[in-house]
Amino acid sequence: MKAAVVKDFTAPLVVEDVELPEPGPGQALVKVLYSGVCHTDLHAAHGDWPVKPTVPFVPGHEGVGEVVAVGDGVTRLTIGDMVGNAWFWSACGACEFCETGRETLCPEQRNGGYSVDGSFGQYMLVDAAYAPVIPPGVEPSAVAPILCAGVTVYKGLKESEVRPGQWVLISGVGGLGHIAIQYARAMGMRVVAVDVADDKSALARRHGAELAVNALTDPDPAATIKEFTGGGVHGGLVTAVNGAAFSQAVGALRRGGTLALVGLPPEQFPLDIFSTVLFGLTIRGSIVGTRADLAEAIDFFARGLISPTYTVRPLTDINAIFDEMTAGRIDGRVVMDMSAS
Ligand code: 8ID
Ligand code: ZN
């Protein structure tokens, strides 16, 4: 089968023939139809984070495809089922986090396209107990971005504790952010968005943001947001891949507000102790979502409430796609068509 392989953190991916994987006990082999491209795949390919994947590996954790074989003991999936892979690929099922509804914190978890080969190939393995099942009638290319971007922002919005009718800030209107605006609206929130380009502001408005700020041209984005919302946003989600956006988002919070950090630039940001304490702010991290969060996120999509903006490209474009992502030139998400490779 063909796959895009990371061989070296400083070199482009190589699209080449690799051996077809065999499903072990509890696993299924999936013929991949489409895979979204997440900025996490780019961080993975560059070895950006403290815990690095082992090269060579195949990235990709927004894969959608058809089960073509199952390993021993698999009863949840059968041949012909439409399933996906996810960043949260499997977990131990027995630790204190798995047992208390916080399985994405499991120290033994495996991650799709990171510690297990992912969906940037014509076939992939999934764990039959953890793979999301795609409901019938759903367009497989359009649902792909839900498997990471969708579930991550849906969970992050829950973590922001913003209630219907209140203001939420979406910082970064890329793959995650433009979908976050749609979930926020579907959850009854009012949206202000921030990015650093006018085309991103247009994308944000198209999906229902009431205010879209260009942080490069607005002299004081936090002040603009505070004025527009009458005191600041009740909560927010930072999906931007830039440390400066994080401090700016803290500055846009209303007293008592909560900020969910989602973007993962390999940087730090200064947190002002005085205002955090005096204004009772909550700053928390949010990592993808549990199997239940993912099923809920897919259900929002299947009911027609979420329509990702995306472009379909062949797998052989992967290095060009990464270049465009680095330059911030992607409108929404790119979804790769594995049959076109
Ligand atoms: O579970 C998680 N926490 C999770 C899940 C999935 C992805 C976290 N992530 C992380 C990725 O690893 C990445 O660091 O979220 C980040 C965003 O992923 P993405 O949405 O797939 O990336 P993108 O499509 O490239 O969008 C990033 C946007 O940020 C904007 C860019 O213009 C782009 O639209 N941006 C930048 I770069 N600097 C900005 C700034 N200063 C900014 N927006 C606002 N202010
Ligand atoms: Zn992702």
TrEMBL record:
Gene3D superfamilies the record matches: Medium-chain alcohol dehydrogenases, catalytic domain (3.90.180.10), NAD(P)-binding Rossmann-like Domain (3.40.50.720)
Which SUPFAM superfamilies did the record assign?
A: GroES-like (SSF50129), NAD(P)-binding Rossmann-fold domains (SSF51735)
Which parts pass through the membrane? none
User: Which top class of enzyme applies to this chain?
Assistant: oxidoreductase
Check the record and name the SMART domains matching this protein: PKS_ER
What PROSITE patterns does this protein's entry cite? ADH_ZINC
Alphabetized UniProt keyword annotations: Metal-binding, NAD, Oxidoreductase, Zinc
Mention one GO molecular function: zinc ion binding
Q: Which reaction does it catalyse?
A: a primary alcohol + NAD(+) = an aldehyde + NADH + H(+); a secondary alcohol + NAD(+) = a ketone + NADH + H(+)
Q: Which InterPro entries match?
A: ADH-like_C (IPR013149), ADH-like_N (IPR013154), ADH_Zn_CS (IPR002328), ER (IPR020843), GroES-like_sf (IPR011032), NAD(P)-bd_dom_sf (IPR036291)
> In what residue span(s) does the Enoyl reductase (ER) domain sit?
4-336
Q: Establish whether keyword Iron-sulfur is in the entry.
A: no
Q: Which Pfam family, any one of them, does this sequence belong to?
A: ADH_zinc_N
EC no. given is 1.1.1.1
Entry annotated with the keyword DNA-binding:
no
Q: Which cofactor does it need?
A: Zn(2+)
Family indicated by similarity: Belongs to the zinc-containing alcohol dehydrogenase family.
The UniProt entry, under PANTHER family, shows:
ALCOHOL DEHYDROGENASE 1-RELATED, VACUOLAR PROTEIN SORTING-ASSOCIATED PROTEIN 11
Official protein name in the record: Alcohol dehydrogenase
Which source organism does the UniProt entry give? Streptomyces nitrosporeus
Q: What gene does this protein come from? A: adhP
